[in-house]
TrEMBL record:
It comes from the Bacteria. This is Catalase. Belongs to the catalase family. HPII subfamily. It comes from Geomicrobium sediminis. Residues 1-42, 509-536 are annotated as: Disordered.
Length: 684
């Protein structure tokens, strides 16, 4: 290397050195201006349970920097998929709210819904273990209302100032940019073990809820406590729920991993195909309502976003139905450019002092300013309200409105003070007049300090199979963690939830099991178990596996029964094109062993074929073996029955066999498909 190149290299290294920070050195935390920080856990509030204050410069700096960290995809919820639809009310909610779209059951409100994973990048796969976004934009006559929900009713943190921290921890580690779309690494579990308020969310994340079978089979929750306000100014606390008509169902973990390789778009494809086939996704809107006088009537704080309102204590009242019936025309213009914001409300819907909600009211607009290039993202077609909008805002990037006239201020005489404000009676939005008082403090209410009781409630509410899946999820995630100290810290933390559960995964990790202790919470909530949601065969996908020489009568009867029950039938063979039956009929194969595994289907019917060669038989055996280990319904006839028996698999649960003589064979299989999984099956 000559002296000039060596000098240039040294100069470059010196330049880079000044930008490197020694993050692990013992330094006092400061703002970006160098001001030392005394508290980084709590945002500034008017009283411990009061609203957050806009003068909190530290929170604003921290959140603003976080919101602008990545371009152009969303920092979180980057991988999304969306559809258009409509919302129809069942009954008027006039006693509770003056929101017009919740008044008249005869009025249908257009909606746009974006589903998403949280952690992965836009190019990640559909099936990781992750929370899912469920954001709904109602295009109402009073303006857009956004219900920005998740498929899990609680969250990791209680105060929004910690949101950058949890996302930094769960995202790929900054030195290696690995792992993608996964929580199974050191930084996340280190954060969990040091932030015990996350316990309830982690229980949900380790459960089957984190690997949904379909967006169409996934619940949605508004997470936060909001307010409904009626014409008389009376307020009620409310939580919002979306309940899928098809019930709430999930993949199994091995299935989710394999689908990620075979079809990384599996869940978005499911929604796209279902809508195109006319199998519209349907959800009922439910509300939990608490009177203001009962705000402190529970053994938890109703403003705490890490807590649920148990449905047995506060029933969910079903008030309407949403139907997603139209796919987007352009992914970028609609799905990617749509901008949601929990602050997009209409008269009759208001906020509470939930400190996580308060932070989101700032963060969402700030994020969109970066993503969509300026303040006029509301003018993009997908974001425009259906009602007209007038104000004195002008110019900025991507302005589409051509404002005429010279007046762009309030008050004015040149345009008769137009646009002008209107009072509440004329539809003007008036914030609920909650009395607020307290000292400016960075603190958290004492009522937020219980971090484990609802996590234990969730555990107690699970079926035995769901509990086993949670333990297995902990085992998988923590086995990927390299630090033994972090593993032990997590074991010790979740012993506060359930000792037997923590002991089960401690053994896998070779960690020290926790000492035994009596459970402090014995209550359960049956509504939390997916086993207690509706089970239907409608729109399920079934692979019918056939080879040349199959029994035409059996297959014809089965296909007709499945289609009559609303099941989607996929004919699968070792080749595409016509497959010939023993009686001279033919049926078109659109799927092959090479293109589709059993993981792409909810159930399989192995009909066989007299002319099947050895490779076909082996593929069919592998197909049914995989479906068997994923607890799926399996129907077998003729050669299919013979191949099943050759594998010596248990035929006690979810296996419907027929040799052409049993009556009700097809209807039994339809009933088995509706059951979804057969967890008691012996797969050893």
């Amino acid at each position: 290397m000559d002296e000039e190149n060596k000098f240039n290299e040294n100069s470059k290294n010196e330049q880079m050195e000044q930008f490197r920070s020694a993050d692990n050195e013992d330094k006092a935390m400061t703002t970006n201006q160098g001001l030392k920080i005394s508290e980084d856990e709590f945002s500034l509030k008017a009283g411990e349970r009061g609203p957050s204050l806009i003068e909190d410069f530290h929170f604003r700096e921290k959140m603003t920097h976080f919101d602008h960290e990545r371009i152009p995809e969303r920092v979180v919820h980057a991988r999304g998929f969306a559809a258009h639809g409509e919302f129809e009310l069942y009954e008027s909610m006039k006693p509770y709210t003056k929101a017009k779209f919740l008044q008249n059951p005869k009025v249908k409100t257009p909606v746009f819904v974006r589903f998403s994973t949280v952690v992965g990048s836009r190019g990640s796969l559909d099936t990781p273990r992750d929370a899912r976004g469920f954001a709904t934009k109602f295009y109402t006559e009073e303006g857009n209302y956004d219900l920005v929900a998740n498929n899990i009713p609680v969250f990791f943190i209680q105060d929004g100032i910690k949101f950058p921290d949890v996302v930094h921890a769960i995202k790929p580690e900054p030195d290696s940019e690995m792992p993608q779309a996964s929580a199974a690494h050191d930084t996340f579990w280190d954060w969990v073990s040091q932030n015990q308020e996350s316990a309830n969310m982690i229980m949900w994340l380790m459960s089957d809820r984190a690997i949904p079978r379909s967006f169409r089979m996934m619940e949605g929750f508004g997470v936060h406590t909001f307010r409904l306000v009626n014409d008389e100014g009376k307020a009620h606390f409310v939580k919002f729920h979306w309940k899928p008509i098809l019930g709430t169902h999930s993949l199994v973990w091995d299935e989710a991993q394999k689908l990620g390789g075979k079809d990384p778009d599996f869940i978005r494809r499911d929604l796209w195909d279902a809508i195109n086939l006319g199998n519209h996704a349907e959800y009922e809107l439910g509300v939990q309502i608490i009177e203001e006088k009962d705000e402190f009537a529970f053994d938890f704080d109703i403003l705490d976003a890490t807590k649920i309102w148990p449905e047995e204590d506060v029933p969910v009242r079903i008030i309407g139905k949403m139907t997603l019936n139209r796919n987007v025309d352009n992914f970028f213009a609609e799905t990617e450019q749509v901008a949601f914001h929990p602050g997009n409300v209409v008269p009759g819907i208001d906020f509470t002092n939930d400190p996580l909600l308060q932070a989101r009211l700032f963060s969402y607009t700030d994020t969109q300013l970066l993503r969509l290039g300026g303040p006029n993202f509301h003018e993009l077609p997908i974001n425009r309200p259906v009602c007209p909008f007038y104000n004195n805002q002008r110019d900025g990037f991507h302005r589409q409105t051509i404002n005429k006239g010279k007046v762009s201020y309030h008050n004015n005489s040149l345009a008769n003070n137009s646009p002008h404000t209107v009072n509440e009676a004329e539809g003007g939005y008036v914030h609920y007049q909650e009395k607020v008082e307290g000292r400016k403090v960075r603190a958290r209410s004492e009522s937020f300090k219980d971090h484990f009781s609802h996590a234990t409630l969730f555990w107690n509410s699970m079926s035995e199979s769901e509990k086993q899946h949670i333990v297995d999820a902990f085992r998988f995630e923590l086995s990927k963690v390299k630090s033994k100290d972090i593993q032990q810290n997590v074991v010790d933390m979740f012993a506060n939830v359930d000792v037997e559960m923590a002991t089960s995964f401690a053994k896998t990790l070779n960690a020290t099991p926790p000492s035994s202790q009596k459970p402090t919470v014995t209550k359960s909530s049956p509504a939390l178990s997916q086993e207690n949601t509706p089970k239907k065969a409608t729109t399920r996908k079934v692979a019918v596996v056939i080879a040349d020489g199959f029994h035409g009568g059996n297959v014809k009867e089965m296909v007709e029964a499945l289609q009559g029950a609303g099941v989607q039938v996929a004919i699968l063979s070792d080749k595409l094109g016509p497959i010939h039956s023993s009686d001279g009929k033919e049926i078109e194969s659109m799927h092959t062993f090479l293109t589709d595994g059993s993981v792409a289907f909810d159930a399989v019917y192995i009909a066989g074929g007299a002319n099947a060669d050895k490779p076909f038989k082996e593929n069919a055996k592998m197909f049914m073996k995989e479906a068997f280990t994923h607890f799926k319904p399996i129907a077998v006839t003729n050669e299919g029955k013979q191949w099943f028996d050759e594998q010596q698999l248990s035929d006690e649960t979810g296996i419907i066999s027929d040799v052409g003589e049993t009556t009700g064979f097809a209807s039994q299989f339809v009933d088995a498909i509706a059951s979804h999984r057969f967890w008691k099956r012996n797969i050893s």
